[in-house]
Design the sequence.
């Protein structure tokens, strides 16, 4: 019980650490943007010039009552422009995220249809295996039951092969239908989110589309014939004298075809599932960055309102009579609110830059929906770039390589567990013995392995009283 609790706590800590790392990664773009100045030299000059103009406006006399509010309004206008740019970027990111979510939903719907069509294949395999068992059982039953009429015996011999062949044909058609839905799910969004340079690769004219549909129909019937003909043909050509033996062969071959079609369907469905999961993940990432941009842009209306308030306050303060006639005092008072408006505008530029970066991140995340499974991703992109989302060919699932990798990981982890000599001394000796025989078979490393084995035997040694107990 304590071991299971410790494993659960360890898993919980790993999950929390992963979530914290994800939060840090999501905030990294905003932090990097905030550490750099988002104002150009020209904008800094304009803001500084506006504040200086407001400070020197009392020298102009009555014209100062116009120049100071105009300077504050100019600073506020820069902040309002930053709000406009930031809000447009947020809207673009949200629209892109919405488009990716729609695309991912369409792909998931097609994948669900493929799953529904494929659901009949395990039933077909079970029926084929049952028919194979009955074909083996029928000759024994007829021998025990004192052979009846020839027509009845023939019907009993033929019923299992016929059902098995029909089931194999159904499996073939089901496989073709499953592939159709899977390919549609995989290709959903390829053209919608592809770059302009790579759209031409997948573009087909009307005549080419008609030819491709005709080829698909012809291929479907060819596969149907290929599923029906081989088993009876092989059973008829094999030199087996008895009808029962031929029936067993035909039934077994048809059952094998059904199982083979099921394996092909699972292979195609695994790729489609991975592709749809990648689309859903890309849509989630795009939506996350769009929401991050919305968070960054949420403060923009407030900065614009503060800048407008400073402009209004400057227009009001120039009308108030100030004690004394000091130009320095008047310049200082007149420049306070324009300076605040300039600071608010500078803050709005940082928020605007964050919105733009998050929108660009959402765009790049959405670009992975154009990933093509049938060609190299670098070719699908139309160009190769170090920071290109298409540049990572590891996004594509290869089922056979995935199975091999899982087997390798299982072997490595098992070996790490077995290396605990104090807990599994006999198993360790067995592993080293197998390795020694394997290296002797290969004709190399016999001496090194024998020394290794002796050292390990010495390390294991006689069991201690604690181990013996």
Sequence:
């Amino acid at each position: 019980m304590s071991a299971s609790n410790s494993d659960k706590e360890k898993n919980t800590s790993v999950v929390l650490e992963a979530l914290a790392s994800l939060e840090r990664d999501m905030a990294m773009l905003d932090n990097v943007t905030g550490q750099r100045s988002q104002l150009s030299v020209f904008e800094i000059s304009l803001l500084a010039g506006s504040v200086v103009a407001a400070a020197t406006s009392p020298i102009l006399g009555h014209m100062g009552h116009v120049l100071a509010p105009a300077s504050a309004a100019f600073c506020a206008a820069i902040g309002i422009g930053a709000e406009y740019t930031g809000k447009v970027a947020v809207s673009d990111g949200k629209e892109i995220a919405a488009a990716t979510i729609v695309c991912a939903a369409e792909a998931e719907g097609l994948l669900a249809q493929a799953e529904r069509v494929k659901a009949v294949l395990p039933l077909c395999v079970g029926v084929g295996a049952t028919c194979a068992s009955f074909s083996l059982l029928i000759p024994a039953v007829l021998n025990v039951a004192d052979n009846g009429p020839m027509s009845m015996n023939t019907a009993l011999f033929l019923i299992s092969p016929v059902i098995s062949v029909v089931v194999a044909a159904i499996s073939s058609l089901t496989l073709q239908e499953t592939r159709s839905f899977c390919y549609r799910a995989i290709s959903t969004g390829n053209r919608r989110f592809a770059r302009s340079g790579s759209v031409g690769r997948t573009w087909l004219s009307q005549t080419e589309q008609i030819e491709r549909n005709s080829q698909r129909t012809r291929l479907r019937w060819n596969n149907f014939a290929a599923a029906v003909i081989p088993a009876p043909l092989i059973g008829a050509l094999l030199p087996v004298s008895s009808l029962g033996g031929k029936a067993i062969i035909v039934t077994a071959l048809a059952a094998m075809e059904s199982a083979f079609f099921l394996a092909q369907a699972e292979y195609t469905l695994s790729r489609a599932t991975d592709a749809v999961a990648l689309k859903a993940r890309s849509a989630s990432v795009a939506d996350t960055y769009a929401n991050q941009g919305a968070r960054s842009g949420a403060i923009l209306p407030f900065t614009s309102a503060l800048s407008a308030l400073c402009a209004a306050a400057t227009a009001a303060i120039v009308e108030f009579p100030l004690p004394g006639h000091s130009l320095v005092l008047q310049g200082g008072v007149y420049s306070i609110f324009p300076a605040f408006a300039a600071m608010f505008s500078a803050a709005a530029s940082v928020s605007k830059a964050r919105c733009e970066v998050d929108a660009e991140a959402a765009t790049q995340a959405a670009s992975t929906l154009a990933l093509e499974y049938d060609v190299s991703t670098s070719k699908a992109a139309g160009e190769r770039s170090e920071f290109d989302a298409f540049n990572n060919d590891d996004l594509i699932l290869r089922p056979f390589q995935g199975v091999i990798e899982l087997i390798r990981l299982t072997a490595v982890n098992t070996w790490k567990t077995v290396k605990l000599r104090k807990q599994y001394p006999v198993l360790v000796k067995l592993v080293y013995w197998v390795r020694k025989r394997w290296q002797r078979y290969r004709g190399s490393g016999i001496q090194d392995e024998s020394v290794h084995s002796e050292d390990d035997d010495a390390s294991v040694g006689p069991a201690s009283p604690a181990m013996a107990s």
Q: What stands out?
A: Residues 375-393, 445-469 have pLDDT under 50 and may be disordered. The radius of gyration is 38 Å. The chain has 16 helices and no strands.
